[in-house]
Design a protein that fits this description.
- The structure holds two protein chains of two kinds.
- By secondary structure, chain A is α/β, with parallel strands linked by helices.
- Helix content of chain A is 39%, strand content 12%.
- In chain A, α7 links the parallel β5 and β6.
- In chain A, α4 packs parallel to α5, α12 runs parallel beside α16 and α14 packs across α16.
- The two termini of chain A are 35 Å apart.
- By secondary structure, chain B is α/β, with parallel strands linked by helices.
- Chain B starts with 20 loop residues before the first helix and ends with a helix.
- The chains are: A alpha/beta, B alpha/beta.
- Chains A and B meet through α4, α5, α10 and α11 of A and α4, α5, α11 and α12 of B.
């Protein structure tokens, strides 16, 4: 039986339709950076799954129960209890969003000169580690950097890499391991419990803490249930609790798994660490019983936790991402496999081989995709990777990706069909997609606000000729897609 | 009609949880005599702060429902930006999750270790943010405030003479910026005059020192300028606001006050380069510049709330409510700071409890007593908040005044609630000689008042009374009255 949404729609938000010429102007005005587009010019917004979820009626009802007292709001206690019940961390410090928690934990644990290993970097996480004087070290397994590898748990930590780091710098210089669930930059790839268990045993023997980035931990738990031997009879809630049990704390952006538009928290087991965290929290975020969140938003997040651990929700959620992946592959577009939990990652380097990495193929593709269909995606390649601090050169990541992130409970599968069609159109016209020059480059996290301009045609290398279907062996002809013509009609 | 009524009616209510005196006694002990640690559910009337505690209007709720939660370039951001621009007149508007984040981001760009940031008076988080950068937060309250001159209409002013002396006696570069907080929260919410803003601006611009306003209560300050500064009697609130901000280079705002919102804030500046630097920095800790750590919903409520806060009917009602409580307390002999501000009534705890020295925290003692008596939560603004413990001697370095703030949440409580507060004070006044001082049992290094644990200092007479049961205790009260 096909998986349908385990909910019906209670409130809608109209979308603006636009034509190709309008979008061409809009992306030019946005300097070819999809972050700089106005959201009202976007038809289907797959920029991020962060803070973009549709809340349930149960959460909206909770919004009306907001207790906006400055200290000791009752919503805080509800949230605290929910985190304790499902994640098992005794101490809960709300923060205005995930990076608030990262800010606090980095300031708390990292001393200048320390090394912070992690299963692949994430933009804000690494920025906080560097601001606190630490150096990020990637200890993810090699398969994670290979878009073609079908390893089921590409988010795993390579224990040997971790050990050799510790041997090299000494365990005193490694305050904690940042263990991310459903590794975002690797394409939303999960880790396995077996891996976490062995890494945790090693870390405990060395006195190194494990801080879980629990942002997409429920999606990770779903993959464990589906793929890891011995867990098919466990509930998502049981697996989540087991994951957390191997860690010393977590940073959480509630804007993903927890189905809310704002909010996050820091979960800890150590009371002394928590007390120190409260001191920082009060200075940067807000008093420890609200941490910069409105009471109503804490209530919505507490209720979101209850909903997010339901298996039927995750079946539909991840099912929809896989639906989009299947449609896109039907057009012969190369994507990162296996498909992760929150997004489909298009391999822009493979799709636009005529562009060198210095011409920002992923950024170019994201801009072109917007012009084709009004779909907004995000670059996850050389622009996101930034520059090396010492050499000043671009960090060239092995993967040059465009991320199509699916917001939770917002779009229907018909919307997904339009997205797949748009990506297919880009593949068709890929020879006409030109590279970009960066005209403005912020120092930190440049991808958010960098500005670009089209490279004039003559400078672009002569594009290779190629037709749809030659890139991926398993592709089928687009004429098989019964929606293609209808969609074409609508977008013109 | 002379009676000033609320220019609104009630659309949604929130039940109040009632507690008994003995329950409250045990809650107090459990909370270490720190009212920040008491669950809100156990509070009857919550006058801890006017920050983030407002009741939204139907228009704000409607805007909240239409919010756009897109990560970048949300329509809600553009509505927010245009509301802020039209009221304050600055070119760049950057939302942040709340006021203290705005402080941190701005100071990080402006202030270096060892520099001095003068202000009419820094508030707690402002001071903590400046000091954590290794700089000095210098308070220059005007003479009228220092001498408790109740005739002065603008006791929140900065002392222009002392500011001039500071600038003349230091090298250029020692003072990276100056900040005026309107109204002056640490000085009992007293307003700052337009003249004072203008003169400060003149002084600073001559030396090319950037000048900012902490605008948390800008509308209330503008209203008091309209009332008290002769030249502005006929001017609209919005034109007064425009003039106030025309004298400065930018502002910080906690929208939890005069934004009539439950969360949120912003930085607004004219300087393009400064704005670019702040935008880059804010991404790391707050959020992308078109949401700054706020949901689309919150951006919408602020955009509407700012407009509601500058309505004269609303401000007149707000003043009437503050005056009602103020006069009610004065009538029964409670020493209150005069004239009353709009957002809070400040009780002089040192005058109320002459038997408790400042080092024994009379303000904190009064706040605890108010809670014990009637479940009212207030906030100490004295030595617990602004003092320091001398690490060598262990003694308290006391704050200049020992005040208790009864902050008035916007549009939340009715006149009957305030009558209840007055009655609680009446009861405490009767037995005020029995109230005990407190001492610190544990404290954090920064912003200690939020999490500190206190314990009562038992004097002989008090411990005798504490051993009596409640009924005898009440009899003792009566005996004293006779």
């Amino acid at each position: 039986m096909p998986v349908a949404e385990p909910y019906k729609i209670k409130m809608v938000e109209p979308l603006m339709m636009s034509n190709r010429d309008y979008r061409k102007k809009a992306i030019k005005n946005a300097h070819y950076n999809t972050f700089l587009l106005q959201s009202q010019d976007v038809y289907i917004d797959l920029l991020t799954d962060s803070g973009t979820a549709a809340m349930s009626e149960y959460q909206w009802a909770g919004m009306m129960l907001g207790d906006e007292a400055y200290a000791g709001s009752k919503n805080f206690y509800v949230l605290e209890e929910a985190v304790q019940k499902y994640y098992g961390y005794e101490f809960v410090l709300p923060t205005h969003q995930g990076r608030g928690a990262e800010h606090i934990i980095s300031k708390l644990l990292i001393k200048p000169g320390d090394y912070v290993p992690g299963n692949m970097y994430f933009t804000t996480t690494r920025a906080h580690q560097e601001l606190a004087g630490g150096t990020f070290v990637d200890v993810i397994i090699d398969e994670a950097h290979d878009a073609m590898s079908v390893h089921p748990f590409k988010g795993n930590v390579d224990l040997e890499k971790l050990q050799s780091l510790v041997d090299r710098v000494g365990k005193e210089r490694v305050p904690y391991l940042n263990f991310q669930a459903c590794v975002n930059m690797a394409g939303g790839q999960p880790f396995s419990l077996a891996n976490l268990k062995s890494v945790s045993a090693y870390c405990r023997s060395q006195g190194i803490k494990i801080i879980l980035d629990a942002t997409r931990c429920l999606e990770n738990a779903w993959f464990i249930k589906k793929k890891e031997p011995g867990y098919d009879c466990h509930s998502i809630a049981q697996i989540l609790m087991e994951i957390c049990s191997y860690t010393d704390g977590c940073t959480m952006s509630g804007k993903k798994d927890l189905l809310v538009n704002i909010g996050g928290f820091l979960g800890l087991r150590d009371s002394q660490l928590y007390e120190k965290a409260c001191e920082f929290g009060t200075l940067f975020e807000g008093l420890h019983t609200y941490g910069g969140m409105a009471g109503r938003d804490m209530e919505a997040m507490a209720r979101g936790i209850e909903e997010a651990v339901k298996e039927e929700h995750l079946d539909q959620r991840i099912g929809q991402v896989h639906y989009l992946a299947d449609r896109i592959q039907e057009y012969g577009v190369p994507i990162v496999l296996p498909v992760g939990g929150h997004a489909v990652y298009i391999d822009a380097a493979a799709m636009l081989p005529h562009l060198s990495q210095d011409q920002f193929p992923a950024q170019s593709l994201a801009a072109a995709l917007y012009v084709e269909t009004g779909v907004r995606a995000m670059e996850r390649g050389v622009v996101s990777a930034g520059r090396d601090k010492t050499s000043g050169e671009h960090n060239y990541p092995k993967l040059e990706l465009v991320r199509l992130t699916v917001p939770r409970r917002v779009y229907t599968n018909s919307h997904m069909d339009v997205v797949a069609y748009g990506v297919g159109e880009c593949l068709e016209r890929r020879n006409k997609i030109s590279g970009l020059n960066m005209t403005f480059e912020p120092e930190n996290m440049r991808f958010f606000q960098a500005r670009f301009d089209l490279i004039s045609k003559k400078k672009t290398e002569k594009p290779q000729t190629g037709v749809r279907g030659q890139i991926c062996g398993n592709s089928q002809s687009t004429t098989n897609n019964r929606y293609a013509d209808q969609i074409k009609e609508r977008l013109r | 009609m002379k009676t000033i009524i609320e220019p609104f009616r009630i659309k949604a209510v929130e039940p109040i949880h009632l507690t008994t005196k003995s329950e409250r006694n045990s809650f107090l002990i459990k909370a270490g005599f720190n009212l920040f640690q008491i669950p809100a559910q156990n509070v009857t009337i919550d006058l801890l702060t006017d920050s983030g505690t407002a009741a939204l209007s139907n228009e704000q709720w409607a805007a909240l429902m239409r919010a756009d939660e897109s990560y970048a370039g949300a329509a809600s951001f553009y509505r927010f930006e245009s509301a802020v621009r039209s009221i304050f007149g600055f070119r760049h508007v950057m939302p942040v999750h709340q006021g203290r984040a705005a402080e941190r981001l701005l100071f990080q760009q402006m202030v270096r270790p060892g520099q001095i940031v003068p202000s009419n008076t820094h508030f707690d988080t402002t001071r903590a943010n400046i000091e954590s950068l290794g700089a000095n937060a210098l308070d220059l309250p005007c003479q009228a405030w220092r001498e408790s001159d109740s005739e002065e209409h603008f006791a929140g002013n900065i002392d222009i003479e002392r500011l001039k002396q500071l600038l003349d006696s230091t090298d250029s570069g020692a003072v990276p910026m100056a900040l005026l907080t309107v109204t002056n929260n640490a000085c009992a919410g007293q307003p700052v005059s337009m003249q004072n803003i203008r003169e400060t601006s003149k002084l600073l611009r001559r030396r090319q020192i950037p000048f900012f306003i902490d605008a948390a209560r800008f509308a209330e300050n503008a209203f008091l300028i309209q009332q008290r500064e002769a030249a502005y009697a006929d001017r609209s609130i919005s034109s007064i606001v425009s003039e106030m901000f025309s004298y400065v280079d930018g502002c910080l705002m906690s929208c939890k006050k005069d934004g009539i919102a439950n969360i949120g804030g912003f930085i607004a500046v004219n300087d393009d380069a400064l704005a670019d630097r702040i935008k880059e920095e804010m991404i790391v800790t707050e959020g992308f510049p078109t949401y700054g750590g706020l949901s689309g919903r919150e951006l919408e409520t602020i955009a509407v709330g700012l407009g509601e806060a500058i309505q004269e009917d609303y401000l007149r009602y707000r003043q009437a409510a503050a005056q009602f409580l103020h006069f009610g307390l004065r009538k029964i002999g409670v020493p209150v700071v005069c004239p009353p501000s709009l957002h809070a009534i400040y009780v002089d705890a040192a005058a109320m409890f002459p038997h408790i020295p400042a080092s024994q925290l009379p303000g904190q003692a009064l706040a605890c007593e108010l809670y014990r008596e009637a479940g009212i939560r207030s906030c100490e603004i004295g030595t617990a908040m602004f003092g320091k413990t001398d690490h060598e001697t262990g003694e308290q370095i006391c704050a200049p005044k020992e005040l208790v703030r009864l902050a008035l949440p916007r549009r939340v409580y009715t006149q009957s609630h305030y009558e209840y507060v007055i009655e609680a004070f009446k009861n405490i006044t009767k037995r005020r000689h029995l109230v005990q001082g407190l001492r610190f049992k544990a404290q954090a290094q920064k912003l200690r008042h939020f999490t500190a644990v206190f314990e009562p200092i038992e004097s002989e007479i008090v411990s005798i009374f504490c051993q009596l049961d409640v009924e005898k205790y009440l009899t003792a009260d009566l005996a004293y009255e006779i």
